[in-house]
Automatic annotation (TrEMBL):
Pfam families: CO_deh_flav_C, FAD_binding_5. This is FAD binding domain-containing protein. Keywords: FAD, Flavoprotein, Oxidoreductase. The keyword Signal does not apply. It comes from the Bacteria. Residues 98-117 are annotated as: Disordered. Residues 1-171 form the FAD-binding PCMH-type domain. Gene3D superfamilies: 3.30.465.10, CO dehydrogenase flavoprotein, C-terminal domain (3.30.390.50), Uridine Diphospho-n-acetylenolpyruvylglucosamine Reductase, domain 2 (3.30.43.10). The keyword Metal-binding does not apply.
Length: 291
């Protein structure tokens, strides 16, 4: 097996163009497991850890954050936790400290597992994936269009993920996950919510309850239309939001849980995260709610 070690982003793209079957390696917390278990035996690994720009994040002139694909979860939590609270919450649930030191959102996107914890908050926040190839340059893929099937994404064989783009949270964001134990666990199901009280927008993301991570679009539309942003949360609205979030799933029975349990748990997570978000909103000064 060849071990390719580009030193720059341009070299990485050139290597991927020349050898599209080469498997990118960032934190290695998915790739090395697959190699160890013989799930795949690629001709080449494309080590991205020397490409320094992948491990950096920046604030664009329009205020959006561009977070390099190689920024590990531990740094997301400490450096961006205040601006991306939903993603940081999800990051805190990933694996163990060792996994969070190595693992990245870029790798989570590369694997595109329906159970990946990074996906629901990216969907809820309306994040965009920046992909690039030597032949065609940069392509921006909304997270909503990125996931195509179980561990299948919109990424072409000659493309690499450069970064994801997202706005700093405009309001409360929450992520919640049900697992078969409290830590080091693959989600049985998960849910993320992002509220933007100024734009009066609701974002959601459902994890581990369908072939791909996905938004609960009907739940978002319902909530945006029915919420009275200046009043206490109506229990009927809360209940219906949970029902619609659960209805967005198309779960299966597997070793981690039944489809019926996943639907039930999703409704609970949706109600719970909305309640947390709403409580934050009500506690915030009115100026922050109205812009
Ligand atoms: C013990 C353990 C616990 C875990 N717990 C969790 C958990 O709780 N939640 C969770 O979501 N995941 C968990 N994982 C899975 C893994 O840690 C995550 O998916 C992590 O985000 C992978 O990131 P990485 O940088 O290590 O990716 P890598 O293993 O380096 O790569 C993962 C995939 O992405 C591709 N890739 C990497 N970088 C790029 C790029 N720039 N462009 C294109 N493709 C790229 C790789 O080729 C590979 O297919 C766990 C893994 C282990 C071993």
């Amino acid at each position: 097996m060849d071990f390719l070690r580009p030193a720059t982003w341009a070299e990485a793209l050139a290597a991927k163009a020349e050898r599209p079957q080469a498997v990118p390696l960032q934190g290695g917390t998915d790739v090395m497991v697959e190699l160890n278990f013989g799930v795949r035996r690629p001709d080449a690994l494309l080590d991205l850890t020397r490409v320094t720009e992948l491990a950096a994040w920046e604030e664009a002139p329009d205020g959006r954050l561009r977070v390099g694909a190689g920024v590990p979860y531990a740094r997301l939590i400490t450096e961006l936790g205040d601006r991306l609270p939903g993603l940081a919450q999800a990051a805190r649930t990933v694996g163990s400290p060792q996994i969070r030191n190595r693992g990245t959102v870029g790798g989570n996107l590369g694997t595109a597992s329906p159970a990946g914890d990074g996906h629901p908050p990216l969907l809820a926040a309306g994040a965009v994936v920046e992909a690039a190839s030597a032949a065609r340059g940069t392509r921006m893929i909304p997270a909503d269009d990125f996931y195509l099937g179980v561990k299948r994404s919109a990424l072409e064989p000659d493309e690499l993920i450069r970064a994801f783009w997202t706005r700093p949270a405009a309001g409360p964001q929450y992520f919640a996950k049900v697992g078969t134990r409290n830590a080091m666990v693959i989600a049985v199901c998960s849910f993320a919510i992002a509220l933007d009280p100024v734009a009066r927008r609701v974002g959601t993301g459902v994890g581990s309850a369908a072939p791909t991570p996905r938004r609960a679009a009907a739940a978002e539309e319902f909530l945006a239309a029915e919420l009275d942003w200046d009043a206490p949360l109506d229990p009927a609205v809360l209940t219906r939001f949970g029902e619609l979030a659960a209805a967005a799933a198309s779960p299966i029975d597997d070793v981690r849980g039944t489809a019926a349990y996943r639907r039930h748990a999703l409704a609970v997570l949706a109600r719970r995260t909305l309640t947390w978000a709403w409580n934050d909103l009500r506690a915030a000064p009115r100026a922050r709610r109205t812009g």
